[in-house]
């Protein structure tokens, strides 16, 4: 409903002045423009339910410019029902995987004139709903949640509830994850990428595979292990059961798993970690035990995080367009809502580098 003309009681006041010696207030702007305080607020801060006639809005904005009035961001958020912020929830901002996706989210938000509020769960799934609730209370316009789900229905149900509440409050949501929570999701083809990596390494002559598998209940890790084992079984060289080592889905987890594999496991000629930071930990464990990579054992990862450009030997991996995924997730979150959640499937591509030249290729 548009506001009417100002009444006789709201005539323009003295031009170019607020209160002497004090910051200019919205009341000063209303007096200067000759409108009610409510009309001035709607003209500057916006409103979820009322509009201001164009001529009145122009009068208010001109008065605000003359008085050099600075709008209050919190007041604008309250009036409009939403802030200009996009929330981003990740598991660990120190992990280059999440940092790259965050770069894409920030890039897309910046193009839309929005800012990004970043929160980290520190790999604790129980903290995710609390972060979403905090963003709801802060009236974030949208939230992007990034990270693989766990095989934990109670935790997933709590997250579904938090996201549903966020949406009921007027916000929008997108995930980079498995499509389990009933919202629009960017879905990485983890199984297909791992399957292709196994076949590519087999094509280089590797037959004795070790797998650093991540946690048994982590669905991204599980999908990637499934892709590796399915491909290797089909190729006639399934890994020895002792060569598949579970650990944390982190750099330290990879270092620990590689150490255990080298100390106690069967002989292997290549080790595949289910993400790149685990592969970096595996390289550290190999150095500690004076195992030469790639001369004695090849190492490969998954994701193609940006920091790999500084690793020697250069690491074979599955390239995933992480920055592009961050942008796409932001666009999903902020795009027009449809009757059903939208799914965007993203495939990876195998990149073979110096860490896996093939057995016997390095003298």
From TrEMBL:
Q: Where is the signal peptide?
A: none
The UniProt entry, under SMART domains, shows: HTH_LACI
Region described as Disordered: spans on this chain? 1-21
Where is each HTH lacI-type domain found? 24-80
Q: Which GO terms describe its molecular function?
A: DNA-binding transcription factor activity; transcription cis-regulatory region binding
Q: Which UniProt keywords apply?
A: DNA-binding, Transcription, Transcription regulation
**Protein name (database record):** LacI family transcriptional regulator
What are the leading ranks of the lineage? Bacteria, Bacillati, Actinomycetota, Actinomycetes, Micrococcales
């Amino acid at each position: 409903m548009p506001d009417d003309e100002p009444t006789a009681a709201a005539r323009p006041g003295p031009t170019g002045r607020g209160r002497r010696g004090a910051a200019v207030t919205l009341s000063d702007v209303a007096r200067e423009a000759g409108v009610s305080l409510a009309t001035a607020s709607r003209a500057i801060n916006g409103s979820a339910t009322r509009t201001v006639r164009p001529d009145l809005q122009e009068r208010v904005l001109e008065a605000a410019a003359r008085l050099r009035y600075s709008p209050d961001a919190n007041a604008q958020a309250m009036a409009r029902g939403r802030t200009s912020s996009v929330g981003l929830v990740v598991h660990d901002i120190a992990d280059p995987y999440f940092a790259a996706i965050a770069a894409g989210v920030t890039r897309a938000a910046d193009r839309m004139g929005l800012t990004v509020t970043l929160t980290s769960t520190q790999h604790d799934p129980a903290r995710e709903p609390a972060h979403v609730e905090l963003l709801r209370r802060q009236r974030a316009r949208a939230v992007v949640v990034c990270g693989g789900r766990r095989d934990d229905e109670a935790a997933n149900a709590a997250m579904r509830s938090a996201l549903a509440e966020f949406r009921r409050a007027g916000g929008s949501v997108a995930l980079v994850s498995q499509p389990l929570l009933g919202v629009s999701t960017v879905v990485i083809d983890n199984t297909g990428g791992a399957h292709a990596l196994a076949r590519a390494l087999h094509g280089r002559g590797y037959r004795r595979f070790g797998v650093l598998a991540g946690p048994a209940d982590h669905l991204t890790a599980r999908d990637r292990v499934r892709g590796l084992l399915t491909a290797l079984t089909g190729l006639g060289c399934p890994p020895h059961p002792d060569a598949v080592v579970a650990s944390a889905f982190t750099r330290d987890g990879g270092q620990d798993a590689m150490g255990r594999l080298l100390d106690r496991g069967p002989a292997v000629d290549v080790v595949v970690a289910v993400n790149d930071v685990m592969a970096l930990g595996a390289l550290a464990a190999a150095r500690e035990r004076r195992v030469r990579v790639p001369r004695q054992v090849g190492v490969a990862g998954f994701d193609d995080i940006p920091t790999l450009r500084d690793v020697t030997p250069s690491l074979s991996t599955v390239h995933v367009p992480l920055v592009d995924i961050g942008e796409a997730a932001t666009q999903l979150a902020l795009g027009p809502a449809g009757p059903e959640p939208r799914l965007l499937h993203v495939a990876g591509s195998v990149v073979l580098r110096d860490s896996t030249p093939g057995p016997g290729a390095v003298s």
